[in-house]
Amino acid sequence: MASDPLELAKLAYTVYGDATGNKNFRGDPMPGWDGLAQRTQAAWTAAADAVQVHVLKAHAAPTRAGEATT
């Protein structure tokens, strides 16, 4: 299930753009991925990697019957 964090970051950025009409938090048009500053790309990639790690841990954690997972 593991994916490349960079590809996940690009996907998340695209989906964010789709959800906001391709506007950033200021309401300005979003650049394409390649138009983002390296620092911004790195931030999206770090976020995507953190989500992936969390999801993989949640799916890998054994649970006892009736025990909630959060």
Topology:
Elements: H1 5-19, H2 38-60
Helix pairs in contact: 1-2
Overall description:
It is built from 2 helices and no strands. With 70 residues, it is mainly alpha-helical. 54% of the residues lie in helices and 0% in strands. Helix 1 packs across helix 2. The longest helix is centred in the last third of the chain and has 23 residues. It is elongated and about 50 Å long. The protein has one domain.
Rg is: 16 Å
User: Per the principal axes of the C-alpha atoms, what is the gross shape?
Assistant: elongated
Distance between the termini: 20 Å
Structural class: mainly alpha
Number of helices: 2
- What's the structural domain tally? 1
Tally of DSSP β-strands: 0
* Main β sheet profile: none
Q: Average pLDDT value?
A: 90
How much of the sequence lies in strands comes to under 5%
Please estimate the helix content: 40-55%
The H/E string reads HH
Instruction: Note poorly predicted spans.
Output: none
Features:
70 residues, mainly alpha, elongated
Structure described in brief:
With 70 residues, the chain is mostly helical.
